[in-house]
Specification:
This protein is an all-alpha fold and about 240 residues long. The protein has a domain of about 100 residues: Orthogonal Bundle (Helix Hairpins). It is built from seven helices and no strands. Helix 3 packs antiparallel against helix 4.
Length: about 240
């Protein structure tokens, strides 16, 4: 059995003595009081050492006996001071160990409470029922996913039409619109007179032709009227 097990479980005469011992809080309080008392004793000894040094300097070689007695007292005070330093170190170590032990005891106690609480909670739980419940949850999640997939699908709307036929119809409509646009376009009329072959002044003969052509046409009409009148008279 380890020392920790003996400390918590108890055993033999140590356990019987521990039952009537002080609590960790009381022991820590006593140790702190002892540390405070020794610290005050340190301050006192340091003051005495400084005083004895002053006495030794004051007498010096003039009164060697008094100076030597002061130095001897200083040595005793220094020895006591060193002992107090060692005692304080031991008490400090013991106090820290007791504080850690008390902390560990409280931690283990709380962990024990938590373990009991967990055990009480798990008493009403059946692993078989938990497995069945998780299986039901998984199945319902699968069903919900199937329903979501079914709702999100297009449900076959428009699948009965052939896409190639629709594209062909669309091309026909576009061609009709194109033909209609071509019919609405008006081209400029072709001029009745011929244009000059090259830019520049028109030849004089062209102007003459333009001036003469209306006169010859009028004379031809008059001749035709005369011929009609002669033919009527002759008949």
């Amino acid at each position: 059995m380890s020392k920790i097990s003996k400390f918590f479980k108890g055993g033999g005469s140590a356990a019987s003595k521990g039952r009537g011992g002080p609590s960790p809080q009381e022991a820590l309080a006593r140790l702190r009081e002892t540390e405070e008392m020794l610290s005050k004793k340190q301050e006192y000894l340091e003051t005495r050492i400084e005083r004895e040094l002053a006495i030794a300097r004051q007498h010096g070689t003039k009164n060697k006996r008094a100076a030597l007695q002061a130095l001897k007292r200083k040595k005793r005070y220094e020895k006591q001071l060193n002992q107090i330093d060692g005692t304080l170190s031991t008490i400090e170590f013991q106090r820290e160990a007791l504080e850690n032990s008390h902390t560990n005891t409280e931690v283990l106690k709380n962990m024990g409470y938590a373990a009991k609480a967990m055990k009480k909670v798990h008493e009403n739980m059946d692993l078989n029922k938990i497995d069945d419940l998780m299986q039901d949850i998984t199945e319902q999640q699968d069903v919900a996913q199937e329903i979501s997939d079914a709702i999100s699908n297009r449900a076959g709307f428009g699948d009965e039409f052939d896409e190639d036929e629709l594209l062909a119809e669309l091309e026909e409509l576009e061609q009709e619109e194109l033909n209609k646009g071509m019919r609405d376009v008006r081209l400029p009329s072709v001029p009745s007179t011929s244009l000059p072959s090259r830019p520049g002044k028109w030849p004089a003969c062209h102007f003459t032709f333009l001036m003469i052509k209306p006169l010859s046409t009028r004379k031809r009409a008059e001749d035709e009227d005369e011929m009609k009148k002669l033919a009527a008279w002759a008949s």
